[in-house]
Fold these 2 entries.
Entry 1:
Amino acid sequence: MQTSLSELFCSVQGEGPYVGCRQAFVRFTGCNLKCNYCDTPVEATKVCKFEAEPGSNEFLELENPLSPEKVSEMVNSYSGLHSVSLTGGEPLMNADFIDLLETEAPLYLESNMTLPRMAKKVKDKISYVSGDVKLLSSELLEDPELHLESTIECFRALKVTKDRDCFCKIVVTKDTSADDIEGVVGAISGYISSLILQPVTQKEMQPKPGFLLKLQESFLNDIDTRIIPQTHKMWGCL
Ligand SMILES: C[S@@+](CC[C@H](N)C(=O)[O-])C[C@H]1O[C@@H](n2cnc3c(N)ncnc32)[C@H](O)[C@@H]1O
Ligand SMILES: Nc1nc2[nH]cc(C(=O)O)c2c(=O)[nH]1
Ligand code: SF4
Ligand SMILES: [Mg+2]
C-alpha cells in the first residue's frame, strides 16, 4: 500500500491545547470537503516536499506515491518529537495507510470528523485527536443531517479515554452562528476533553472578540473552553 503526501516537515503544533509541542507533520492530499476558509492546498502533487533539517527551508523532493515504511523512516529521522501530526487534506481518507505506520512518537490526528468507517479503522493507533467540527452552515453540504450524524459517530469512535485525548476545535468566522455551534457541541460533549474556539486567520473573515467571549461563557460551565488562534503563522514557521 502506498499514498501521496504533499509535504513532510518538523515544526511545533500551532493550534489548540498542544500548541508548542514538537511534531512531525505528515500532510496527505485530497479532501472530501471544501471549507470556504481553508488555508491549505489539497490537490494531489507529483512529489512530496521533505524538509530533512527542521527550519532549514530546504526541501528534498520525493516522488509520490510513498510507502508506509518510507514515511515512518522520514518521521523517525527527526528527534525530540512529542507526536506525529497526520493532516492534509483529510487524513482519514488514508486510514489503511495510517494503520501501517510505525513511528516512534505517538500519532496525533487532525481530522474533519466526517468519515466514521475510517475513524473506526484507526481508533487504536491514535493517541491524540484534534476533531475539527465543520458547522452545518459553513460549507456546501449535500446532506446536513447525515453530516451531523457522521460527525457524532466519528467522535464516538475516537472519544477521549485513558489512552487517548480527544478535543474539539471549531473555526469561528464572522458568519458563524452560535446556535449551530451549540447544537453540535451538545451532541459530542461527552466524548471530548476540551473545546477550542479557533478564530479564522484571514482578517476579513474574523468574528468580533465579543462574540467569541460570549460563546466561551456559554460553554464554560459544562466544558473546558478556550479561545486559541493559529500561532504558527505569527512567527512564520511551517
Ligand atoms: C487544513 S486542515 C487539515 C485537516 C482536516 N481536514 C481538518 O480540517 O481538520 C488543518 C487545520 O487548519 C484549520 N484551518 C484551515 N484554514 C484555516 C483558517 N483560515 N483559519 C484558521 N484555521 C484554519 C482547520 O480548521 C484545521 O483545524
Ligand atoms: N505549525 C503548524 N501547526 C498546525 N496545526 C495544524 C496544522 C495543519 O495544517 O493541520 C498545522 C500546520 O500546518 N502547522
Ligand atoms: S476539511 Fe480541512 S482540508 Fe478539507 S477543506 Fe476543510 S479545512 Fe481544508
Ligand atoms: Mg495548517
Entry 2:
Amino acid sequence: MITSERMAAVDRNAEALGVPRKQLMESSGNAVARAIHRLADPEASVAVVAGRGNNGGDALVAARFLAEYDVTVHLLGRPETIATDIARENWAALEAAEYDTETVTDSADLALGDPDVVVDAMLGTGVTGALREPEATAATAINRTDATVVAVDVPSGVDADTGDSTGVAVDADSVVTFHDDKPGLASVDADVTVAEIGIPEAAERFTGPGDLLALGRPEQSHKGDFGEVLVVGGGPYTGAPALTARAALRAGADLVRVACPESIAREVQSYSESLILRPYHGDRLAAANVDPVLDLAADHDTVVIGPGLGSHEETLAAVSDILEAYEGTAVVDADALQVVPAVETDATLICTPHQGELRKMGGETDEDWRTRTDLVVEFAAELGHVLLVKGAYDVIGDGGEHRVNRTGNPGMTVGGTGDVLAGAAGALACVLAPFEAAAVAAYANGRAGDAAVEDSGHGLVAPDLIDRLPAALWEGDE
Ligand SMILES: NC(=O)C1=CN([C@@H]2O[C@H](COP(=O)(O)OP(=O)(O)OC[C@H]3O[C@@H](n4cnc5c(N)ncnc54)[C@H](O)[C@@H]3O)[C@@H](O)[C@H]2O)[C@H](O)CC1
Ligand SMILES: [K+]
C-alpha cells in the first residue's frame, strides 16, 4: 500500500535516479491498454475520458496502444488548460497523428455514445474535494452507460488515500492502479490490478529529493509553523549542545532552547548569541534536575537529549527518569542512547546511534551492513522506537518500514556531525512523522556535508554542515 504523498515522493526519487515521469506515464498508459486488451475484443468501441492532469495523460498514452479498437478520446477542457507538460505532449501527439479526439468545454457537450468500454481518466491522485464541472456531469454520464468502465489509477471522485467521495464518483468495473495498491481502493467494489510501471525499487528504499517534498517550500511556511525544540545536553562537553541547537534552528525550528548545567552556560552561550539557555543547577545532569527539565520539555514540541551529557552514572539515571516520564517526541543521541533499552516510556523516541552505540544498546551489526537493514528493522521493533543508525549508509527503521540514506562522505566522520544530525532530526520531528523526520534529517545532513566538501574540499568541520542545512532541505538539486 502506498499513500498519494509517498507516491509523489517516490516518483520524484525515480526522476532523480534517471527515470523521468514521462517514461512512467508511457508505462502507465501501456498497462491500461493491456487491461483493455484482456477485457474487450478487437474492434470494440472505447471512449477515453481524459482530465487535464497526469491521470488524463496516462489515458492519452493508452489510446496509442489501442490500434485494434475503435477509440474516441474526449478531453475535458481546452488543450491549453492541460496542467502538465507531459500530458500536453501526449495530447499533441494524438492530434498530430489525427486520432479521433474531441474537447469538451461544457459538460452538456459530452457525447459518449454507446461505447463498449469507457476509460475513466478524469482524476487520479491529484483530486481535491468533490468533483467539479465538467467532471461531475461526466461521471454521471459514464455511470449511465452500459459500458465496461476501466478506471485509471483510481475511480475519478474517489480519494486514493481514504476511499471517500464527497460527491458523485465513477462506478468502475475495473481499476488499473500503478506501482502499488492504494489504501482508498480497499472500499471500491471493482477488480483492482496493480501494474508495475518501471519505478526502480531504489526510489523507495533510498532517501532522495522526493523525501523533501513533505516539508513544503519555505515561502509557504511562517514562523510558528515549525515548532520549538528543547536540547538537553552538555556537562563534560559544551560544544555538542550548541551544535545541536544551532542545527535545529537552521533546520527550521522557530525556537530552540538549551537546558544545560549552569556551570557551562556561559561557555555554551559563547558559541552563538542566538542560543537561548535554560540552565539548571549543578555541573552535570542529575536527579535534582529531572523535574525542572520535564517541566521545560512539556513546553516544547520535541526534545533532543544526549549531546555532550557524558556518561556519569547519575546523569544516565536522570536521563532514564526523564525518558520514563516524558510522553512527547524525543531524539536520543550519544551517551543517552545506552539507557533506552531498559526504559519503559510512552514517549516516541528517535534513536540516532552509530554502529558502536548500537552494539552498546544491545543491537546487532554486520560487516555487510548495506544488505542487513533487517537488523535495524528488527531491533527498532524490539525497542518500539525509530532507529537511525549512522554509517557510510545510514539505515532508518521503525519496525515496519526502513529507508537507507546514501548522502554524505568520509569527511563527515569528524566530531560534531552527529550533534548536527540530532538537532536537524529534532527540528524536523516538529513537522514530520518521526520516521520521516529521521530519514529527511539523514538525507539533508549528508547533503549538507557533500555541499561542504564540494565548496571547500576536505577538512570539513561540523559548523560547515549547519550553514548548509537550509539549502540541503529547501533547494532543488537540478
Ligand atoms: N508516480 C506517479 O505517481 C505517477 C502517476 N501518474 C498518474 O498521475 C496521476 C496524478 O496526476 P496529477 O496530475 O497529480 O493529478 P490528477 O490528474 O489526478 O488531477 C489533477 C487535475 O485535476 C484538477 N482537480 C483537482 N481536484 C479536482 C476536482 N475535485 N474536480 C475537478 N478537477 C479537479 C486539478 O486542478 C488538476 O488540473 C495519477 O493518479 C496517475 O494516474 C503517472 O502518469 C505515472 C506516474
Ligand atoms: K481516474
